[in-house]
Specification:
Blueprint: E1 44-55, E2 60-72, E3 77-93, E4 105-123, E5 126-136, E6 140-153, E7 158-171, E8 179-195, E9 198-211, E10 219-226, E11 229-236, E12 242-256, E13 261-272, E14 277-289, E15 293-304, E16 342-354, E17 359-372, E18 385-396
Antiparallel strand pairs: 1-2, 1-18, 2-3, 3-4, 4-5, 5-6, 6-7, 7-8, 8-9, 9-12, 10-11, 12-13, 13-14, 14-15, 15-16, 16-17, 17-18
Length: about 400
Amino acid sequence: MLSPCPPKAKSSHANVFQMPGMTNPWAITPFLVPAACLPAAEAFRFDSSYQVYDESNGRMFVESYYYRGEMFLSEETSFRFQMLRDAITGSTPIGAQPGGTQPFLVEIDDVRQGVLAALSQQIGDHRVEVELSHSRESDYLSQGVSLSDKLELNQKNTTLSFGLNYLNDTIVVRGTDDQNKKSYDLFLGLSQLLDKNTVVSANLTLGYAEGYLNDQYKVIQRDELFGGIPVTNIYRENRPSSRLRGVLQFQGTHYFDKANAALDAVVRLSQDDYGVFSQSLQFEWRQGLFGKLEITPFFRYYQQSAADFYHPSLNDVNITTPQAFPDGSGPNYSADYRLSSMSTMSVGLKTRYRFTENIAASITYEHYEMAGVGGDQAPAAAYPIASMWTFGLNFTF
């Protein structure tokens, strides 16, 4: 019988296939597929998913294909993998102001392909996992490795998590040599089962990135005089060459026996040395119906302050002639709307139906809106409104 998954005192293999540093750079929210409660004796699990991300007014359109699998080689050893393909077309704000002589939108057409492989081993009370990832686009190559450990204590009612992640990215920048970016992440987590139906957790992630942190396609404009004639020129953005960030997350899940449902709530706080402080709140209600159907409405709200170096234009920035290829040294500036003071809201519905004990299908719809808030907003036309559809099939053997 299908029902929302209540917390369990005994740990089970996670149904999460995350690729460190390889989240979709175009889709705003993560891929959403309800997790199934699966027996511990399973030998193989596979799911295939198709996602469409569509912004209004003919902006961005992204098609994503995901293939995930997990094999349990023994009671102590498991292997999982993920393959993905993203195809993007459409247009996006480049950083210039709308209604001017410089283009506000630029066309984008690209394909990304990625693969992940992870091997997990139980060693006493520890669950150790090594993960490798590889992702390639026409102008971006990302390679990563991570190591994590989960330690179960207190008769498996308490779990301590620890992880390290390293990414080495190569960026193609037209007109100059390829650039490099390195990212390091440290993860610490604590999960506690309060009773047979309630689990709470707290996670802290510290991240540091260095190297080329600009978006090679984003620009910023400045009004100038050329031979006494007013003109508007554009220059490449110049973000700092390093970034330190911290993310603190609290999560609670409670299973309601009589309602055959589970409530999941997540609060996330983030701060970085760009000056961006963000808060997000998410709720999911997983409702089991008729023994085979699960319906999950969800809501997510996010808000952030602007980066210290966010500027709609260079008109008010004290700089003579900007560098043709900025290296991160000051002054820093960017007109990227994603660094402005803004908020996002997502609301949607996930449905999942189990045909047999081994076959299930899911459909997810999500409506997403972004808007400027506070005093450091980008032009209203920069913020997208989008819809997402996700279709998935899950097989267990």
